[in-house]
Each structure stands twice: as C-alpha cells, then as structure tokens.
Amino acid sequence: MQQDKTIQQIMQAIKEKEPFHQQIPNVGKLVFNKIVPYLFIYRIPIMGKDRMLTELAKSETASIIYKTDFTREEWIGIIAEALAKEFGSCLVIEVWNAPQDQVQDISIQLSQKNALQLAEYFAKNIVLEAPDITVALEKLSKVPKPDGHSDLFTLKELQEKQIMSLGISIKQRYIDRQGHTLPILLRHFRETLGKSLSRLFFEFLRIHTTVKAAEFKLQTHEELSKFVLEIDKKLAQESQRFDFLLLVTPINAHEAWLQFKKDKFYRTPKFIYRPMPIDPDLVKRNLYNLRIEDLYDPTIAYLFRDKRTELDAMMSMLSDRGKDDFMHGSLQIFGAVSDKLLNTAKALLTVIDSGDPTSVEEDTKLDAHGFAKMAREEIQYLQAQRPDFNTTVRVRDDISGVMVNRGVLNISKEYQIGIERAKALIQHEVGTHIVTYFNGKTQPLSLFSLGVPGYEQLQEGLAVFAEYLVGGLSNDRLRIIAGRVLAVRHMLMGHSFIDTFSMLAEEYHFTEQTAFQMTMRVYRGGGLTKDALYLQGLIELIQYLKEGKDIRLLTVGKIREDYLPIVKDLMQRGVLQPPALIPRYLNTENLERLTDVNKIGNIFKLIN
C-alpha cells in the first residue's frame, strides 16, 4: 500500500510539474529537480556502484539510481509514460559499465529508427568535446540494456507510449588494472558526457516534444547550489585581491618618456611598478583548496577550473615581474603572434600611408577632465536603461593613457585626445569594457564580470569594432593596432626596448611618443604579449559577424568566442540572463554599419 501511495504522489507531482526527490529505502533514489520529458537511469550492479556513473547520474536533472533488487521497476515505465503524455514524448537513457570485449570507449545503443538522429548528434558532441574518447553507434533488435538485467520496456511499448530509448555502455578507462581510480580521467569522462547529454536533451526537446526548447529553462536557484555559489564567491575574492594590469603597468610612464627623450632615445627607460599587495603563493594555495572536483555540474566545473588555471598563471607572472620568465607566463595566458597575424599587420601598415591626412587626428583636443566629462555623460545615457547602473570615472597621476579596471574608467592626468577620436574611445572603454562588466555583474556567477579565461581577445576585438560602428575607427588607430602586433613579435624575437622603439619610429614612421607608448606597453612587466590580441580579436569578430551570428550575445559579460556554446547552454538553462545594458553603438542609428559588415569581407575594408 505504501508503494502504491508513493507512485501516486509521483504521478501527482508530474501532473502539477512540481520537483520531487523520492528515497527508496535500501534501494536507491529517484530525483526530479524539474519535471522534464527525460529520465536518466543507472542500475547499480551486484559488484557495486561505479563512481563516474553515479556522479554523472546525480548531475542530471531527472535521474533514477537504484540497486538490482528494486521490486517496483514497473514504476519506470509508468513515470516515462506519464512524462510522454505531458510533453508529447519522453527520452529514457540508461547507462552502464561496458563488458570486457567492448572496443570503443563509449557505445551508444539504440533500437528505434527515430532515435538514430539523436544518437548521431550525441556521438558528434562527445567527439567534439573530447576527440580522445572513441565512440561507436550500435543498432540493436531489442531495447538496449546492460547484460544480466531485466527489460524495462518492449519495442512495442516504446512505440505505443511515445517513449524513446538510448543505452550508453562505457568502458572503465578511468580505472587502472589494480582497480585504482584515475581522478583526472574520470573527471574528463564525466564532464564530457555531462555537457554532451545536456545538448542532447535540448535537441530532443526541440525535435520530439511539444515544448518550445528556448522557453524550457531550469530555475536559477535550483541549478546553482550553495556549493557552486560558495566556490564562485571564493574565486571572485581571490581575483579581486589584485589588479593584474595595474600591477604590471609602470606608474612613471610619463616621467620615463621625458627621460627617454632627454637621453636621445639611446638609453633603455627604467620603469617603476606598484608594490605587490599580495603573496602569489598564498593566493595559489587558496585557489587549489577549492573543491571544484566535487561539483556535479560539468559545465560550471569546467568554467571554474579554467579560471583557476588562469589565476595560477597570473600569480606566476606577478612573482616574475621584471624577470625573463614573466614573458613565458604571458605567452601561456595571452599567446604569441602567428605568422598569418604578423603578415596581416605588415600589410595594413603598408596599405595605410603614415602621411595620409585621414590618419592625422584633428587639432582640437580634450584634456583628461574634458574626456572624463564625456565619459560621465555616456554613463548617464546607460543609466536611462538601468537606474541601478553606476560607476566612477577617475583622473589619476599613476597610470598612462586610459584603463578600465573592475568597471571603473581611469584616466591619466596627462591624457589628451582629439574630440572625434574621444567619441570612439568612449564606446571602446565605456560602451564595451564597462558595459560588459556591468552585464556580467547582473549574472549569478561572478566569473562573467571578472572575465572568463582568455576573454581579452574577443573583448578587445569587440571594443575596436565599436569604434568602427560609431564612425571613429581612423586609419591612425588601425596603424597603431597593427603596429602593436609587430612590436610584440619583435620583442619575442629577442630584440631590446630600443630596437623595437627604433623599428616602429624609423621603419613604420610612428611619432616618437606614439612609438614609445607602444613599446612601453609591450615591454612592461618583463614582456606582455596582450597587445597583439586587438588585431586578432577584430579579425575574428568580422568573421563571426559574416557568419550571421548575434553581436549582442557578446555583451552578456566578459566572455570569449569558444565559450559561446557554454554561454548558450547556461542561458538555455536559465542560469545566465540576456544582456542588461545595450551599448550606444548597437542602437538603431548604427545598424546600417552593422549590416554592412557582411559586405566587408576582411579587415582591409575598414580602411578609410
């Protein structure tokens, strides 16, 4: 009677779409974090549970984990049928350990013709996610199941009740011959399967159910556990203990320029940096005390682990500030300059005449306070969209040029800029860097305001493209962006500060002060390769837009392009929200230029 009452309660929960967790004493657990037309099954074999399969099952929205002596297996058929009636169809996936003679790492088994497309899509995603994991499709004449277990369905029942079934047989490659678990390999399998199953689920929703997949989202608070938020908070705390760019940027750039000029450009300038406010070793210890490996959600675990690796590399760079090893860390985080990028930069500098009138800025200049006033006016424009948006503009004497850190615009007191150029730079700094920071702050994960690992390339490419959209990407600006690539490559080849400065000034006819600024940026800290990302990011953004992709999605936070599938997945699940602020350069008045980008073809079409 008690068992009958339990299944009645489950049926009522499905009908009312109320989440439920049902413990089956001494047998297992049935969990629906949300009522979905999907059921993930793991039957624990007599020899005991597999850790990877158990963790994988726990990470799914709806799962049943139980021992083989569960006497009410008919519940599974009843539940699947009820879900199919609610949603038009139900997908049942069962997972088990592969027999010894299985060749491939994963065998995806099916018996229904209409499940073939889903199985192929699932296999494709596994291979894309992890090319080292081998996958095979196996078509059976009966419903897939692990050896020695009872049938959960017949083929006739699947057809009549609108249920689809897939079996996943997995080799225990993450366990060695002595029976010891290999934790990194286990995590690799779990995360690969978790992300691939998530995409499979939404593909099933889109094709086989009456649900609109785009509207079918998990609730944020259900998805983000206290454990996830705790790790996110601690990662943010460690990230906010230091400002990387400020710590590797000289505080005496203006004085160093004056001395360099006085020395007739023959003596390498001496740069002074801020005192280190942290102990990099202690930060590293705190980072690796975070139990990211215990997270069940594979997507979020990947995000956190990737960020931790980046912060670890930054700590090593800060420890090596002013030393040769600093450059090696920069290559790890920001990358080098490819031959293709170098040739593009050289071609831009060849095509754009340094004496072209369009590359010379107008005489009318704004000082630092005038530029700050323009920035505050742009902030007021954005506040009209979101009254809770607020930030600060600071004029200070310990930086060079302009810099945004943690959503605050910092301007050197020595800064001067032409009025027309200022309008474009406002969209670069406020419209892109500050807007994406605020949009990231509105997300439940701090990672999207602090910046996912490697976000700089897309961020800087988008920021430069913003200048183009408001008609402010001058030939002079393109020359500087291309010149930075040459400066980075020249530094990586072992040339000195003076050699690189001379190359920019004499071979490519940059003004002496501009050449100094470019060289200083590249050699700061011991060798920073970040400045090559501006041109690479702009090239890749043009290609992204030519493919008809959404530019607004790029403003959701500080992200990078190869994270977009993850971003879309998290938005689909309701974890991430659409951008809170839309920058001025994406307004209707600039849509014509945005439409024209499809005709641009390549970066050379941006030349005035």
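(the above was protein one; protein two follows)
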Amino acid sequence: MPEYLAPAVYVEETSFRSKSIEGVSTSTTGFAGPTLTGPTGGTPELLTSFADFERTYGGLDDFDYKAPHPATNFLAHSVRAYFDEGGSRLYVARVVPLDAGFASATVGGNTKFIARFKGSVGNGTITVQPVKSPATIRGMNNAPVGTILIGSGSSAVLKGNAAAPFNLTGHTTLAFELGQAKEPVSIDLVTNKVELTAVATLAKLDADTTLDIVLNGAPQPGIKLAAETQPQEIVDTINSRLQGCYARLDAGALIIGTHLPSLVVKQNSDLGITKTLGVAKVKALAEVTLEELDRALRGAGIQAISLENKVTLRTAEVGTTAGLAWKGTGDPLGLGTDAAAGKPGARTFIKQGTDWVDGTGTAASGLPPELDAAVGEFVTLRISTRDGTGRESLYEDVGLDPLHPRWIGSVLSEKPTRQSEAIQRLYAIQIDPAATGLTLYGQLLNSGEAKSFPLTGGSDGSPPGDKQYADALDVLANIEDLSIVAAPGSSAYGENTARAVRNELIKRVEKRRAYRIAVLDTPDASTHGLLSQVSQWRGEIDSKHAALYFPWVVVSNPLARPGNDRIPKEIALPPSGFICGIYARNDVERGVFKAPANEVVRSALRFQIDVNFAQQESLNPQGINCLRFFPGRGYRVWGARTASSDPEWKYVNVRRYFNFLERSIDLGTQWAVFEPNGERLWANIRETIGSFLETQWRSGALLGSDPRQAYFVRCDRSTMTQDDLDNGRLICLVGVAVVKPAEFVIFRIGQKTADARS
C-alpha cells in the first residue's frame, strides 16, 4: 500500500468494479499450401483481400508439376473463394517442395540477377534501360553522392606530329570528315603569305619619298609620301594606292605584305634612319601560323590548338556523335599518314562527397575542361521486371554506385531491410564485390543502351510432401489469433500425403490452449467418389477439434479465355476454402454460437457429386458434412458436425463457441496471476466471468429463461482445498448451457376427432 510520510493531501486512483472480458476473434483463418511466390518461415503477413494475396504470394496461375500430379493452384483458388464467401482475415504459410529451384541470369563476372523465391514463376525477364538527363552546373552541385556522370561532351581530337608554322605550297586543300553522318568537308587554304618589315620607324620622312612595289612581277604605281606625315596617315596612303598588298603598323614599324607568292619593294628616296626598307628583292615567306590555321578551319567546325608543342585539331561539336578524320592526300599538317578517326571516348565520373572522381577511381581531379560548362549526362537506370506469369514491376531512378541513395544493390537487395520489399519484390541482384559503378554500367547496358536478361532455372519441382506441410503448420501454430486452420489442396497430392497432412492438422489444433478447429477435405471425388471410400476416410479419424466436408465445389475458372480450349472453363476445388469463408461470414452475421450450416455457397456452379437425401442419411451420422443442392434454394452447406465420436462435442458450433469462451476468459483474466489468492480475488473473478457470460446469454448464445439457468460461476472454498491454496492454485468452475442446432426439425401431425361442443 502507498506510504504517507509527510503531511499533505493525497489523491489516488482506485477501482470499485471488476475487470471486463473482451470477446476474442473467431474468424481469423490460417491456410497452409504451395503458392507461386512468397516467403517461407517467420511470421506470415495478414491478408485482408485477395489482392493482398496476389501481391505477396502470386496469382492463380497453375504450377509446373510433373504428371500425373494436378497442376491447379488449389491454395490460391481457395483463398479467392475464402474472401468471396465472406472471410476477412487470413494468414498463409507457404509450402515449398524440396526439389523446387531458383531462377537466375548472369549479368557479368560474378554479378547475376536471381529470383528471391523458388518456383517457375521466376523464369521471367529483367530489362535495364538507361535514363540520361542533361547535366548542368547546378545539377552537378546538387546531384546526390554516388551519381554517375557520363562525359559525352568530349570533342573528337586528332593529334599531329609537328609544330606550327607549316610550309605549304600554293593553294593547299585540307579534307576532313566530321561526325558520323556528315559529308566530308574541304578547306582551301592560301599558304604563301609574304610580309616585308621596315627596319626604320616612320617618325620623319624626307620630301618626295617614293615607294615602288613590284607584286608578283607586276609593278605598282609609285607611291609618293609627303614629308612630316603622321605614321597612320602614311599607312592609310599606302593602303589607298596598293592593289593586292596591304600596309599596317606594328610597334611603329611599317609592315607591307601580300598573300601572293612574291613581293618586291623598291625605294627611290630615304624612308628613315637606315635609308633602306630591306633588300631590294624579298623571297616569299610560305609559313602558316597556328592562329591562321585556326581561323581557316573554324568555319568547318574544327579548332586548331597546340598540345605538347604540337598541332592538335578537335571538333567544336561535342557529344557521342562527334568525330574527326583526315581524308586528304599527303600530310601537309604533319598529322601522320596513319591518322585515324579521333572519336571521343565516353568518360565516366562518380560524385564522392563534393568532388567528381574519374571512373577509374584513381584521382579526384575534378571535372575535365570539356565538362566545365556542364556538358555531359547524368545516368540512372529504369529497371522493369516481368515474371513467368506476366506480372510486371518498375523501379526508377536506380543508381549504379554504392554511394547512391537508390543503389541497385539496395533497390534489388537479396536481404532488404523492409518487410514489404522482402515479400513483394520477386527479383534481387547479387553483385560481385569487386564490381564498381563503371563495371555495372558496362555489364547492365549494351553500349549504353537498354539490355534484357532472361532468367532461367526456376522450377516448381514435385508436389510438396507431409514434411513441408508440417513445417508450414508450425509457422501457423505461432500465430495466437488463429481460430480456423485448413490446408486446401493437400488431399489432391496422393493418399499418403493427404492422410499425413490431415493428421498434422488435427495434431496441432488439439494442442493445449490452441483454441482452434481444423476444416478437413475429403479427396477428389474423381478418385474417391464412392460413399464407402468417403466413409473410410472419416473412419480413420476421431477429433472434436475437426470437421470434415464433402464433396468438392465446381467453380468457373478465372484463368479461362475465349478460344483457348487448353484451359478448362470450370475447375473443382476442395471445399475447405469455401467453408472457412462461410464460418467467418456466419460469425459476423449471426455469431459463433450459430451452426455454420444451411448457408449458401455463393461461388458454386455446382458440386462435384450431387448428394441426395438417402446418401446423406448414411453420411451425416458419421460426422461427414455434405454440401447439397436444393431446387429453389441453391447450393448450401448441409451439415454442422465435428469428426468426433463424443456426443457432447457433436456439433461444430458448440466446439467453436467453447473455443471462443475459453480463449476470451484466458486472455481476459491474465490480470489475476500473482494476485493475493483470497476472498477479494475470488469475488472479482466471479464478477468478471459472470458479467461476460450474462452478455453472452443476452445475445442468445446460452440456453435458459434467466441467467441462473444459462450459466454458473463458482470460485470459493468449495472449489479449492487448502492444498490448492498452499500450492498457489485458484480454481474456478464455469458451467454454460450452450445452445445446439435444431438439426432435426420434427412436426408431429395427427387426426383430431370433432365432438359436439366443437
């Protein structure tokens, strides 16, 4: 009890009422059986619709079992029937045959795509497409770490063997081929450029200075230069008189030049200090500088630069289509007679931190000059997968480098951190530890273009055996919410497997504190259609926690297509999937205390065998629940008995209602453990359980005109001895008068004799 040590006002919370018991769920179901995909082991995901099942375990497509085993995907069809009949909460434990195989496809080296789950459904195709977006300076700065940049902006380059200037003769024609789809281009280059430089400055001229020029053998009119003329005026005068020549100033010196092969300058008077312009006759200077070559080639989209003191030609155009090839005769520029096409190679860069590292990873020298202006492309992947049944998935913005936030090794991880990815993503990639982003770029793409990888080797193997079913049922045993358990389709894989799985189901539902019922199927009526065979099947078991149903249900095949006769339009399915859904529907609409019989099988086209009244008279007393057709009333469940010889547990609703009561009281009284075992606790227990049972009586689940007739709760000295108290045992006796179904409705009608008073 609380301590009161200091004077104060103490406000405390207390309870003046007994605790309540909340009724547990009775319709949560567990199925065990083979599926196309899906995880095994661990805790299965809760499914609330057939769409949930398809996302996690695949669709309805048939298996690829070897004959004579049926290939029908019984469990998937049963799940669909379960939800169609009214089920709402389902757990599925996948059963995988021992000889099933994984599908895979080699990418390159030790890198390969694999199917995450065994089965032929993994034999699909993975297509990898590059997604290239133009790089910008801002994009480079904001790109996430691990982004790959392809330097497709490089120029096409031809490196020469000689340095400028070039000695060219006459008019030289240079021929080049640019790009991949362009015609060759020719440039006519004037090569004989002659310039004669005056050795004197034009600070002062004598009067009547005359300049005589002979150009290419033809004399020019003498040019008289006035004294005291400014240098620029002298240049202007010469330019206005000359034909085919020009004059210019260079640091105060007079330069006279021409582009023709020869130039002779004669003087009649003194031009300056040295009294001579040069030699009387000057030879031609047949030299072309790098700058002049660059000016001549720019019009054709070619730049001339000096690299390592040798002339280098490169295209002004950039990109993967850029190209430059020498197509002329001879070798006037010193390119070498074996000059090949200088196509640019794609350079790869990976962002690490704030730096762009060359694809080799050897140096973080930043971007090359041709990428300084953000010429290049960011590369990500778009990966589309298509499994063996045609289901497609798409993954976008996938990176190639491990530093990328959506690295392919994380998006298609073998062991993803998120449960949803581990369940729903069928394919994964195993990456060679030595592979880099550049390695994957070359392996996953075909020269930078899309590439497809077909996966092979996936196999469904043979139908699963009882050992694999037992493992799946162990998984379901760990889920406390389950109230109904079944293994739809297990009775179709041979008598030995069917018997073993049936016994495993019964064994697990009869365990202490299981609070479950097993819904059992009879074998396919095409092999066990005789009543004697069905009776024998029922005679092999005796369990108050199981119910057996006969015959199978024929439904329309959702896989059938018009014009395709290879796929049957109707299929027969085991009844357990339908019955489990009807159990759930009955619990919601009426209550678990109402027998799940006289209920319509909504999905049925018909039953595999039309059981008549006389046949059911033989089957019903044995505890075989029949599904029957009644004209005007449809296809109905016409039986509600357990597979037990104990008359106290004859009916399914009694068994399931007691499961409900036991588990509700179990969970609702856990608070009493380790409480002081005395009168106060006993009174609370009586009040807690009594209130719960009174609610059940008022809802119609218990028989009697008042609560005293419907139930009793005893928890006092009459139920416990001193030995019980000394050993920590609290014993409470609970009795309920549960309602049982009116299985036989009898009206007795007789004749009545009228007397005089009537």
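Reviewer note on protein two: Residues 1-21+669-758 form one domain.
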